[in-house]
Amino acid sequence: MAGVLGVAVIGTGRMGADHVRRLHEVTSGARVAAVADVDAERVKRIADGIEGCSAHTDPAAAMAADGVDAVLIASPGPAHEAALLAAFEHDLPVLCEKPLTPGSASALRVLEAEQRLGHRRVQVGFMRRYDAEYVKLKSLLETGQLGRPLMLHNRHRNVATPPGFTSEMLINDSVVHEMDITRWLLGQEITAVTVLKPTPSGNAPEGLQDPQLVLFETAGGAVVDVEINVNCGFGYQVQAEVVCERGTARIGDGHSLVTNMAGRWGGTIAQDFTERFEDAYDRQMQAWVDATRRGEITGPSAWDGYATAAVCEAGVRAQQEGGRVEVELAKRPPFYA
Ligand SMILES: NC(=O)c1ccc[n+]([C@@H]2O[C@H](COP(=O)([O-])OP(=O)(O)OC[C@H]3O[C@@H](n4cnc5c(N)ncnc54)[C@H](O)[C@@H]3O)[C@@H](O)[C@H]2O)c1
After folding, report:
1. CATH code at position 43
2. What's the pLDDT tens digit per position in 115-156?
3. Best substitution site from 14, 128, 161 to test ligand 1's pocket, by max atoms within 8 Å of Cβ?
């Protein structure tokens, strides 16, 4: 193990500030060495709270700062390509929040640049792969006890959308997590997407097509559905049920605490993703720090980021044009085998 890992955090908004807190207070073996944000006041305020942390408005300057060994990118998706390429110039390991980049063409440019380095540098922040329930589900599938997966049912519900949330963002920002988890759980690429649109909920803001039912077909012949329902009003819920030849397995029912009182039984529902996936974010960070200190790159790769970008493009086309849209995926380079 190398010494304490000095991390430069790029983007200190909702996710970035939470990752700074996590690195500073929760993760072992790492420290926040530099932070960068185009908002000079915000970045200074965050750096002031951490001893030995420098503040920058230019991400490249943060990466070049003293004591930086690795980079965490939590700026908005359109800024990721430039930040990734800057990290590659310094040959720094990167944990990049999803999306790798917002489109498949830019994602391919990142894959090409990483391959030119000659070694993997990128882990993409698909943190559900670190959620204890998803990990159990994948382990069970891998034992083969249930037989071949035939179908996967997913539900993804949010209390409400922030202002400016568009129908495309349901695919690009929300269903993107089911795209990654489907590929990971089933070990298969997604080959086609269909989107069905019921009459919008009365809870949905004017013009937002919410909810939607998104269907994936996979290379191994499985069919996957995703209820994406982001103004359900009652809570943040992520559930998944795999239907296999010899049985089914389901996660996300949130039965960790059940109460009986006054003629009713039940529990509580998380209100947002930071609550539901808090442990997964913590485990993702610790795993990234540990692997980086060992000189390894593990977790979701730039290929996973590219493949989900390609599925998102098919999803948005299916949403806008109707019908079934095939995913256009480049050949997977042996570098990402
Ligand atoms: N894994 C997850 O569950 C999850 C959840 C939410 C968001 N995200 C991802 O995290 C990233 C950040 O999302 P957020 O919700 O924190 O957004 P946000 O808008 O709250 O924060 C973004 C921050 O980046 C700063 N910024 C903008 N352009 C920049 C640039 N070029 N360089 C440096 N900083 C810049 C902004 O000033 C802001 O402080 C996005 O990629 C988003 O998709 C992931």
Report:
1. 3.40.50.720
2. 999 999 999 999 999 999 999 999 999 999 999 999 999 999
3. 14
